[in-house]
Amino acid sequence: MIEYYDISGCYIVRPWAMSIWEIMQTFFDAEIKQMKIKNCYFPLFVSSGVLQKEKDHIEGFAPEVAWVTKSGESELEMPIAIRPTSETIMHPYFSKWIRGHRDLPLRLNQWCNIVRWEFSNPTPFIRSREILWQEGHTAFATKEEADTEVLEILELYRRIYEEFLAVPVIKGKKSEHEKFAGGLYTTTVEAFVPNTGRGVQGATSHCLGQNFAKMFEINFENEKGEKTIGVMVMVHGDDKGLVLPPKVASVQVIVIPVPYKGADMQGIFDACAATVKSLNEVGIRAEADLRENYSPGWKYSHWEMKGVPLRIEIGPKDFANNQVRAVRRDNAVKIDIPMADMVEKVKDMLDNIQQSLFDGAKQKRDACIQVVHTWEEFVEALGQKKMILAPWCDDEEVEKDVKARTKGDIGAAKSLCSPFNQPELPEGTLCFASGKPAKTWTYWGRSY
Amino acid sequence: MIEYYDISGCYIVRPWAMSIWEIMQTFFDAEIKQMKIKNCYFPLFVSSGVLQKEKDHIEGFAPEVAWVTKSGESELEMPIAIRPTSETIMHPYFSKWIRGHRDLPLRLNQWCNIVRWEFSNPTPFIRSREILWQEGHTAFATKEEADTEVLEILELYRRIYEEFLAVPVIKGKKSEHEKFAGGLYTTTVEAFVPNTGRGVQGATSHCLGQNFAKMFEINFENEKGEKTIGVMVMVHGDDKGLVLPPKVASVQVIVIPVPYKGADMQGIFDACAATVKSLNEVGIRAEADLRENYSPGWKYSHWEMKGVPLRIEIGPKDFANNQVRAVRRDNAVKIDIPMADMVEKVKDMLDNIQQSLFDGAKQKRDACIQVVHTWEEFVEALGQKKMILAPWCDDEEVEKDVKARTKGDIGAAKSLCSPFNQPELPEGTLCFASGKPAKTWTYWGRSY
């Protein structure tokens, strides 16, 4: 998927990972175009004057900004920053282009790279210094339109996680402490990695409110595009390697001939090619691995490691019986399929794999959710690496206090989101942390 | 199309230009995937050690390299360069990944931004400091395979220019002096801008030869992606603004209602919407401009300036006669079309506009081609801003000499390419510049 690079915190995205990114990109791009959001491209560079204009906003990024100070042998007159995000780059042009209500709504998006020179230990996919992502910036005449679009975009992000990556997420609202600085409110899809017991902020869609006179703005970004792939890897991977959901696998079906002494190898090879052709014709991404210098066993391990959802083997017995053997990557179940039903059966199996990866992940995630009511229960659940659902007073100071009290080597607990889908909150329920009256159920945990 | 930005040499690519880039990208990307070239993404950054490894290669870029020396407030231990191109970044990994012939061919491509901090005056689309482009890097076991792929890619570039942008190009080979430094040979598609009398190197496909033991490499890049759009603008634009070839226009047909006192405006608006719907259904990118606060005349100018290939007007008379009026952007021809034939006729007109833009551009370009045999004829033709075809001895020293002798305020003449399609070269023909025996016909001119 990735290759380490000689500059720390930078990684090479190899084709296997890139194709996953492209599949998500194709889906999201088509959907936002339907919503009349148009793509554009703003520069990589931002002058220090512009960058520092929005003080609140830039404070968080300042320590991580990479500065260009030289070109060739010459010092630049003024250092120039590489974008850590593009709000400060784009907003001045929004003001310029929007003269009045008839220029609204303005809906722009860009696919680009951003740079955040983090010093905490970089991790491929999860924390890298150069990030491929998408950032949308739109402006409306009314708050109602802005609110609607915030949720429409959030739904697209949910679909990317749940329908494509088979990773269950919880939709909700960020706390005041965790929201986009300077914005009105932030919505999020939150994933959870059971193995490590950590939450992941999947993607966020923000309502910025009226930053400029008479114009409601929203922003949305798939919080570090490559991170999305990292979450999928962590949620579905196993000892043998990756497990790719069929919808994002660039090879959904790998067809492998199984040679046998004295067998009709040409016949078997032809059957493999014909199988690939039939599958391709209905839009299934299938390939045959006909290389002669690798054994079937080597090929099995190779494609298992790469996470291909379904393997089809064709050996002399299959060939003689006019059937193929199909082996699922996710649960190792093997079945023999008559050639006549092959395409239909493979289609069903792929749908089934997609669904069962999601169901399995949801089951595991749900098993990690722990409802707590008291600080003691909270601390215990945190120790057990749970995703904690707790009644909360929604007070920013209390959240800061929770962070301070749980600070440790593996990071502090923080609020993940208040789910839109709220359980009942009986009158008189108290906040797990402050003992004050609770206002909302909120998820808490350690997070990437 | 673009907006100036507060950092000199950087531009904002607005949606109208971005969509042209995306259309070309979609075409090229699908075609190279058919050729089994896979997309990947290498880092934006390169360490100075790696950058300087290929001395010959980097010499040309060194003065234009942007250097990151600081992150936040800290000086980096070693300055890090922003890629001016990715050969030095990618080649070490090719060596690592290719262990033997069974790992070949390796075919990678990336869509990315590169930075060249040029100091000559920046020009939108033609010379900018950050460039969006595509760069392909592939490796083969044999030179024959490499040669074949060089030409297959060059043909794709020709199609982008001729079939999409309606800009005629000449396919050929670069001289030793102009080829990719360190490579075996460079092929190119060369465009020409009649108004300014300058050639444009459209895109290049290089055979690098055996850089590493037993492996033949090729590179290809659409020489500064955005430049491609700039050439199209210069070739087709007129006094009223852009003229977009239908194939790259994000809006191919703009439908405009023409209100008239007492007319059935609702009926006309509905007819506009119905027209757009019928066109969209057959895949034509049509939109209606139903804004009430702009006059039809304002809308005509607006969409003419934006270069939309075909305008459809629907006024009371058209509505009563169940017809529309279609007006071509390229030649202002107006025709009335009965609603019953509308979709078919519009399709034909768009094809016709595409073809006639190409034919017109080719005619103008051809009229600029001047065959010369002597230095005097050469100098005269250069003064007349011609694209010059001359018999040449193919000697690198002679080319340097031609450059030196034609150096002026507006740049020196250089060889553009030796066309694959060579005119007859009779025995005894002499080089226009050296008087030595000519070996090839070559195009010369000033170039962007």
Automatic annotation (TrEMBL), chains A, B:
It catalyses: tRNA(Pro) + L-proline + ATP = L-prolyl-tRNA(Pro) + AMP + diphosphate. Keywords: Aminoacyl-tRNA synthetase, ATP-binding, Ligase, Nucleotide-binding, Protein biosynthesis. SMART domains: ProRS-C_1 (SM00946). One of its GO terms (biological process) is translation. PROSITE patterns: AA_TRNA_LIGASE_II. Signal peptide: none annotated. GO terms for molecular function: ATP binding; proline-tRNA ligase activity. This is proline--tRNA ligase. It comes from the Eukaryota. It is an enzyme of class 6 (ligase). Its EC number is 6.1.1.15. CDD domains: ProRS_anticodon_zinc (cd00862), ProRS_core_arch_euk (cd00778). SUPFAM superfamilies: C-terminal domain of ProRS, Class II aaRS ABD-related, Class II aaRS and biotin synthetases. Residues 43-226 form the Aminoacyl-transfer RNA synthetases class-II family profile domain.
